[in-house]
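Run folding on both entries below.
>entry_1
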Amino acid sequence: MGLASIEHVRDTVEASGVDGTLPGLLADVFRSGVAAGHGASSTTSLIGLFRKA
């Protein structure tokens, strides 16, 4: 899914002194996707999570 990648981006952004709010929110969404069983799916599988919200 890309959770490790987005967490890396968040960490890099924060280490650079830039606000990491957006990458942090994306990481939360990706974590929800993994918890819902979509860890091996593409990022587009997250659309279903937004439809349920």
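>entry_2
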Amino acid sequence: MQVVHDVRIAAGQALGQEVSLFLVVALHRHPVTGTQQGLERAADAPPWPRTCTRRAGDQQAHLRLVIKPGGDANLLSGILAAYAGRPGARQVDILFGGATDRADHVRDGRADVALLYAPFDDLTGLDHETLIVEGRVAILPPDHRLASRTEVALADLAQETLPRWKGVRWTGAPAAGQGPEVTDAAEVLQMIRLGRTIAILPRSLVQPMHPDLVYRPVADAPSSALVLAWSQDDRRRLVASFVAAAVEAAGAT
């Protein structure tokens, strides 16, 4: 296998570790007697599986975390500090996603880990650890008929106009889907100010509270959970160390 060794060195210098690993496998599949022919055969071989690319990427310099603005329940600073203190910690790049596309960032490899809200975000194909479980609050205009209550129930909201969250299949709210379509919290807050809708959101997503709106706990609304998610096929130490730090930091709050 001297040919394999020579190709691995040449390809590794020119194209990087992941391609060199691919060429080694390709040459095992197609034994040859010359380096040039080996490169031609390797170019025709099937693509390298994404799961293996992830594992080879354990040497990447940065870890990529995708969140939505304000979607960290004030945990992120503590998580980053806990991770920075762990052996072998890497720089963490913060990426911002929308209300519904952050899980896709992990599934297609744009991010290594994501902060998501269950059960609203789709966790198909992902593993996750729960960081916090929290209640939900109704957000109302100040002149709303329920604004004087200290808390409300889902039955109180049954006839209310609630927003349609683009890309969200289930919200746990009664009669959801009859109001304006929105994509993030900023849009829904604007619609509430205009009197077009009310909303039921996880408590951490309404911080800081806007003084011109009213926030009331919904006593019987399904709980939501902030979770840290990563691909089911990702077993890198890079990811495992960050997950452990996040769980540690969340437990300390």
